[in-house]
Write a structure and sequence with these properties.
Layout (H helix, E strand, L loop, with lengths): L9 E2 L5 E2 L5 H4 L11 E4 L2 E3 L8 H14 L24 E5 L2 E5 L1 E2 L4 E2 L5 H13 L11
Antiparallel strand pairs: 1-2, 3-4, 5-6, 7-8
InterPro entries: AlkB-like (IPR027450), AlkB-like_sf (IPR037151)
Protein name: Alpha-ketoglutarate-dependent dioxygenase AlkB-like domain-containing protein
Organism: Pseudomonas neustonica
């Protein structure tokens, strides 16, 4: 099972990242022991509780590598409010928000460099998770 130092980030089921100590119940559900079936939480929205359990250590290590290239940041919404969770991105596109709106970009606005490459373990996990709930052929471009 993964260990979480005080500075470790944790992967959230939404594929966003946040900084700080993980809140054990809410943020570790992705790493909890698997449930036998996906849980529908809305139209075309599923919870795969424990789906990443076996890969927890690798995923957290990869997040640390991504953070070295694209730091976590509390983005500011178009309305001027700082988001409560700090985020980072990897892949072809990264999600950002600022006074101009919400969008995906090919470059990190803090570094003006392309977002870090998506680790193969992230890509494989996303493809497997999508297939598990009926989205075969999913090709993730951003996490």
């Amino acid at each position: 099972m993964a260990t979480f130092p005080a500075t470790a980030g944790a992967w959230r089921a939404s594929a966003s990242c946040y900084v700080g100590r993980p809140r054990l119940q809410s943020s570790l559900d992705l790493f909890a022991p698997p449930t036998p079936e996906p849980i529908a939480v809305g139209p075309d929205a599923w919870l795969l509780k424990g789906f990443a359990h076996a890969q927890a250590d690798d995923l957290l290590a990869q997040i640390g590598k991504i953070e070295q290239q694209a730091a976590f940041r509390h983005q500011v919404t178009p309305g001027g409010h700082a988001m409560s969770s700090a985020q980072c991105s990897c892949g072809t596109y990264g999600w950002i928000t600022d006074k101009h709106g919400y969008r995906y970009t090919t470059e990190d606005p803090l570094t003006d460099k392309p977002w870090p490459a998506m680790p193969s373990s992230f890509r494989e996990l996303a493809v497997r998770a999508a297939a598990e709930v009926g989205f075969k052929g999913f090709d993730p471009q951003s996490l």
